[in-house]
Design goal:
Helix content: 25-40%
Number of strands: 0
Length: about 45
């Protein structure tokens, strides 16, 4: 589990096959997940 003080960098996002992904390392709260989604939208030009 990721500690509350950890960060999620979304400025270098890559597409990978789901088959290569392991177990989730974090489960962000609703507010934090909203923040991550917003950052991804900005990083990918979808804002």
């Amino acid at each position: 589990m990721v500690n509350r003080g950890d960060v999620c960098w979304v400025d270098n996002v890559r597409t990978v096959s789901q088959s290569v992904l392991g177990e989730p390392i974090a489960n962000p709260s609703g507010k934090r997940m909203h923040d991550v989604c917003r950052a991804l939208a900005i990083a990918t030009g979808c804002d």
